[in-house]
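User: Hey, my collaborator sent me this sequence without any context and asked if I could get a structure. I don't really work with proteins. Can you help?
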Amino acid sequence: MPRFTMDIDDQFDQTLTRLAKGSSKADVIRRAVASYQYLKSEVPDSSSGKRIAITDADGNVQKDVILP
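Assistant: No problem. I've predicted the 3D structure and written it out in structure-token form, which is a compact way to encode the shape of the chain:
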């Protein structure tokens, strides 16, 4: 399995630690990359005006997300 090394700041490490409760930091990063890959495939060109909407249980848009 390939290995990857990166330098992160303390705030990012604290965020990873918080998100990794019951898991590992590597697993959090793997899941984040997989999620980002999926979202990018669903919205391949954010300049086209496509958005990802986060909705509540009633379908009301709570937040729009445009991927960089």
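In plain terms: The two ends are 29 Å apart (CA to CA). You can pass these tokens on to your collaborator as they are.
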